[in-house]
Amino acid sequence: xxxxxxxxxxxxxxxxxxxxxxxxxxxxxxxxxxxxxxxxxxxxxxxxxxxxxxxxxxxxxxxxxxxxxxxxxxxxxxxxxxxxxxxxxxxxxxxxxxxxxxxxxxxxxxxxxxxxxxxxxxxxxxxxxxxxxxxxxxxxxxxxxxxxxxxxxxxxxxxxxxxxxxxxxxxxxxxxxxxxxxxxxxxxxxxxxxxxxxxxxxxxxxxxxxxxxxxxxxxxxxxxxxxxxxxxxx
Length: 234
Ligand SMILES: Nc1ncnc2c1ncn2[C@@H]1O[C@H](COP(=O)(O)OP(=O)(O)OP(=O)(O)O)[C@@H](O)[C@H]1O
Ligand SMILES: [Mg+2]
Description:
CATH superfamily: P-loop containing nucleotide triphosphate hydrolases
CATH architecture: 3-Layer(aba) Sandwich
Radius of gyration: 17 Å
Structural class: alpha/beta
Order of helices and strands: EEEHEEHEHHHHEHEHEEH
Strand content: 25-35%
Oligomer: single chain
CATH class: Alpha Beta
Bound molecules: adenosine-5'-triphosphate, magnesium ion
Number of helices: 9
Low-confidence stretches: none
Largest sheet: 6 strands, mixed
């Protein structure tokens, strides 16, 4: 569904990713893990055209989507939830969701999609008129994911959805992510919580210094080197 071919990208002329090959198959969860500064967020930003691409290609459903503008990427079926739960603090929950639909002209469709998100996240419906700044961290994260879902993505890019969340809330967020995936949405998930991400993913890539150091299925949980570095030796 998504193929990244020999991608080199970065910022202001500085190459951060040095020739990445990466693939997502339909309805798959792919985990992307690696140390701080490895370039995980940069890889998601490269797909979403938020950094500089020096060479290589991003192919989505057999179409070259490299460097397409944001609204066009969303229209093609790719949505992105950036690191750090970026919600509009001074807008209500419902307004935040509607902002996700900025490319949609059909208001009935927007309302329908808002309803769908409310079904998935009932607390968002209960608190639809609350300002986003009054939600807890976990609730804001789910709102950010809900806002992306309004766009009806086929591929969802999630950057550190569990960052800074208490374990119980983190578990809930992972459950929701699994559910979203079960409805047929492919997901790339970047995670600090490597073990949890690898467990819900069909496949995992490990990124180190702008290069793919390793890829594999859940069996990498048993790899002793990987265990020590990424799974806290457990
Ligand atoms: N907007 C930017 N301008 C210049 N350099 C940047 C920018 N964003 C990130 N970088 C640099 O790119 C490199 C990779 O950063 P990136 O955010 O992709 O890493 P990461 O793997 O997501 O790390 P973390 O786990 O800390 O989120 C780092 O050296 C970082 O300093
Ligand atoms: Mg990051």
